[in-house]
C-alpha cells in the first residue's frame, strides 16, 4: 500500500537593493554557510534551499538580483511572482539607504498595492559599525513607514542571516493566511458584500488603493 508524500510549500523570495550592499554575501551565507569576499556584480542568480521555520518545512527559491540601474527593466517579472522580499542597504552607505525607497516603490508597483507586508528591511555590514552612516533608528523609522519588518545583520559573521530569511517566511505565511480568510469572507458575504483590501479592511466599491 503506497503512501502519498507530504507536499512541502515553496516560497519565492527576492533579495533586492543597490549595488555593493552585500546581497550576494547574504544569500550565499544563508544557503552555503560561507562568506563571499569581494564584490562581483550579479545579474541574477537563483538558489534553492529547504528550511524549517517554526517547525514547518518549506522550500525557498531565493533570487539574488542586480542592483544596478541598467538592470531595472529585468525586475518587474520576478517582483510580480515573488512572495517575499529582503530589501537590503549598507549601514556604511547613506546612498544605499536612500535607494531603498525606490526599490520599495518598484515592489509595490509590481504588486499593484500601496504597500506590501512580506518585506524585511535589512541593514547589512553591522560588523562595520565604526563606519556607520545610517543610524539603527533611521532603519526602524523607514520600516515603520513601509509597514514592514526590520533588522540589521552581518553577512561576514552570519549575524541575523537565518533570522532575516525566517522572518520573511513568517510574513509570507501571515499574508497568505490573511488573503485566504478574506476570500472566504467574501464568498460567504456574496456578491453584495463589501469589497476588501488585501489586509481584510472593508472598502467602498470602486476604490482601487490602500491607504
Automatic annotation (TrEMBL):
Region (Disordered): 192-211
SUPFAM superfamilies in the record: P-loop containing nucleoside triphosphate hydrolases (SSF52540)
Subcellular localization(s) per the UniProt record: Cell membrane
GO molecular-function terms, A-Z: GTP binding; GTPase activity
CDD domains to which the protein is assigned, alphabetical: Ras (cd00876)
Entries under Gene3D superfamilies matching the protein: P-loop containing nucleotide triphosphate hydrolases
Annotated Basic and acidic residues bias: 193-205
GO annotations of cellular component type: plasma membrane
GO biological process terms on file: signal transduction
Bilayer disposition of the protein: Lipid-anchor
UniProt main location, coarse: membrane
Keywords, ordered alphabetically: GTP-binding, Nucleotide-binding
Name this polypeptide is given: Ras GTPase
Amino acid at each position: 500500500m503506497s503512501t502519498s508524500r507530504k507536499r512541502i510549500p515553496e516560497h519565492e523570495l527576492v533579495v533586492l537593493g543597490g549595488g555593493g550592499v552585500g546581497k550576494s554575501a547574504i544569500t550565499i551565507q544563508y544557503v552555503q554557510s560561507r562568506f563571499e569576499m569581494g564584490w562581483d556584480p550579479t545579474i541574477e542568480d537563483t538558489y534553492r534551499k529547504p528550511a524549517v521555520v517554526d517547525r514547518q518545512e518549506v522550500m525557498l527559491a531565493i533570487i539574488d538580483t542586480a542592483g544596478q540601474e541598467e538592470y531595472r527593466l529585468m525586475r518587474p517579472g520576478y517582483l510580480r511572482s515573488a512572495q517575499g522580499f529582503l530589501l537590503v542597504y549598507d549601514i556604511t552607505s547613506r546612498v544605499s539607504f536612500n535607494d531603498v525607497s525606490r526599490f520599495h516603490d518598484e515592489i509595490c508597483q509590481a504588486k499593484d498595492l500601496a504597500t506590501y507586508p512580506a518585506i524585511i528591511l535589512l541593514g547589512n555590514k553591522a560588523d562595520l559599525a565604526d563606519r556607520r552612516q545610517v543610524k539603527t533608528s533611521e532603519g526602524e523609522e523607514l520600516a515603520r513607514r513601509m509597514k514592514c519588518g526590520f533588522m540589521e545583520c552581518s553577512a561576514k559573521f552570519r549575524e541575523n542571516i537565518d533570522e532575516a530569511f525566517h522572518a520573511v517566511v513568517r510574513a509570507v505565511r501571515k499574508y497568505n493566511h490573511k488573503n485566504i480568510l478574506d476570500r472566504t469572507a467574501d464568498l460567504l458575504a456574496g456578491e453584495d458584500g463589501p469589497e476588501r483590501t488585501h489586509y481584510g479592511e472593508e472598502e467602498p466599491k470602486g476604490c482601487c488603493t490602500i491607504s
